Amino acid sequence: MAMPLAYQTSPAAPEWLNKGDNAWQLTAATLVGLQSVPGLVILYGSIVKKKWAVNSAFMALYAFAATLIFWVLVGYRMAFGDKLLPFWGKGAPALGQKYLVRRAKIPETVHFYSNGTEETPMTEPFYPMATLVYFEFMFAAITIVLLAGSVLGRMNIKAWMAFVPLWLLFSYTVGAFSLWGGGFLYHWGVIDYSGGYVIHLSSGIAGFTAAYWVGPRLKSDRERFSPNNILLMLAGAGLLWMGWSGFNGGAAYAANKTASVAVLNTNVCAATSLLMWTCLDVAFFGRPSVIGAVQGMMTGLVCITPGAGLVQTWAAIVMGVLSGSIPWFTMMILHKKSALLQKVDDTLAVFHTHAVAGLLGGLLTGLLAEPALCRLVLPVPDTRGTAYGGGAVQLGKQLVGALFVIGWNLVATTAILLAIGRFIPLRMPDEQLMIGDDAAHGEEAYALWGDGERYDATRHAPVFLADDALQATQSASGARGVTIQL
């Protein structure tokens, strides 16, 4: 029987290409992209004060675009290319067709023991390198967008424009290569299934560090920073939640059983964490908070990420309970008692929602990783959590991996910001901070008539009701509406 035409090989569809895997990986990557644009663009633009809506949304949009260009120019191969150092790859462009149409592989450098035997087998997904470059870009981009949440409402936009490519190349790529691209933590067996350390712990620590060096918002903004549109904030949060199915489902590098488990666990943990956070809000403050529910959703998504495809679903519920309570405690209780946490103005509490939740997820993965699930996807054989006979070894590896990510991000972020600060002020001057978007961009989020716009009779024709009943009145400082005389 002849093979159906759709499954026959051709120059565009070689025998190693699995069209289902390729389609899923591209879809998963796009779902992750939607988390940033428009997801976090909308969330940031609506969760801040009205005067910072444009600036906050633009910081996310700019980071997404700038990351893509520097990723394909040099960043991808610094994170996933041939080994340069135990924690860094050789930077090179990912632009040529010869490189992009060949079969994907991770890591690119095979690591051998001293006796010549292969230490960790190479993973070779059934799709082209172009798909993998695109997928991994989305993770790099969202990491920097998440980091931005710590410095909203005061960072000089020009300093941010310089910071994004430098932090991508000198901080993100180190964590990505060390844990995913064939670095020393990858071969040692530290588990980070989909970025609890590479993305969330690093963005939380780097964001907190950046908030320290950039400095605080105005006192008036710190005291009152109410969202300008909670409904739009929920829309952005919804895109973030749904996009996480691609985030964790795509980390299996195939449309397989691991992807299915990861997607289910992701949503179960997020829902559990949201409910836990909401219950704590009701118990301690007497009423549920919509912003709190979003924070709980976020911590659940972050916590499950390092083990989404590696733990059983009952474990995802346990992780959701803890991710909805421990970050809640650090944010609502510990934060108010810590002089350091009070001093550093972390605008959207990225330290609590990402650093704390990411570290928690990494440690819980070391405890609860199920051996059979680990065998399906992890490169290091016989990986298992402490609860399954792994002893304290895996927890120790998880802790060491976390300490490396924390230390590198503290040092690299500090060095980058101090270097930028020699040429560009990191913080906007107080005069601009008083104004916000109009000073930073010459634009405002909501241009409604009457909001500083003078009434022009030549452009706004009068409206006549019975006996000229409706008359527009204009004050000396400009119109603020109309007066209806009955």
Task: Calculate Rg over CA atoms.
Answer: 25 Å
Strand content: under 5%
Q: How confident is the prediction overall: mean pLDDT?
A: 90
**What general form does the structure show?**
globular
Task: Kindly report how far apart the N and C termini lie.
Answer: 86 Å
What letter string, H or E per element, gives the SSE order?
Answer: HHEEHHHHHHHHHHHHHHHHHEE
The percent of residues in helical segments reads: 55-70%
Low-confidence stretches: 462-486
The helix/strand class is: mainly alpha
Strand segment count: 4
Number of helices: 19
The description of the largest β-sheet is:
2 strands, antiparallel
Strand order of the largest sheet: 1-2
Note down, in words, how this protein is organized.
The longest helix has 29 residues, at 19-47. α7 (196-214) runs antiparallel to α15, α7 packs parallel to α17 (393-421) and α10 runs antiparallel to α11. This protein is mainly α and 486 residues long. The strands form two sheets. It has a two-stranded antiparallel ribbon. Strands 3-4 form a two-stranded antiparallel ribbon. It contains 19 helices and four strands. Mean pLDDT is 90; it is low at 462-486.
Topology diagram in text:
Blueprint (H helix, E strand, L loop, with lengths): L18 H29 L5 H28 L2 E3 L2 E2 L7 H4 L28 H20 L8 H23 L4 H5 L7 H19 L4 H5 L6 H20 L7 H29 L4 H15 L8 H11 L2 H12 L1 H5 L6 H19 L2 H7 L15 H29 L8 H6 L1 H5 L28 E2 L11 E2 L2
Antiparallel strand pairs: 1-2, 3-4
Compose a concise summary of this entry.
By secondary structure, this protein is mainly α.
